[in-house]
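Quick one:
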Amino acid sequence: MMPWQRLIFCFCGMGGCLAVMLAALGAHLPDHAFIAGGRVMLSRGVEMLIWHVLALLALAVSGLPIMRWVALPMGAGALVFTLSVTSLALHGPDIAFLAPFGGTLTMLSWLGLTVIGCLAHRFRRETR
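Output:
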């Protein structure tokens, strides 16, 4: 297993655990723990995180070294987005300004995957 794959698998384990923990908080904390609309906001952040954990698992399992250029920024973007949204929803430190950066990084990662998919035939030839 390559170092980038180990890193992504570790992120997936921690990200999955964080998603379950945040979902439990969202389900069990009293309403006064949230800002107005914060429970729904937290739920959306959890959804974003868990779906990206699954996508990252698929990228790591693929074993294609080029996928590290998508997986690493995708993981970082999903984490920054989720933590900033969670902090806002739960009256935490004001780091909501980071959400657009995390979201943009995540979107660029998906576009990177699109480019890799469209040009896969070129990458395959170069590795032979």
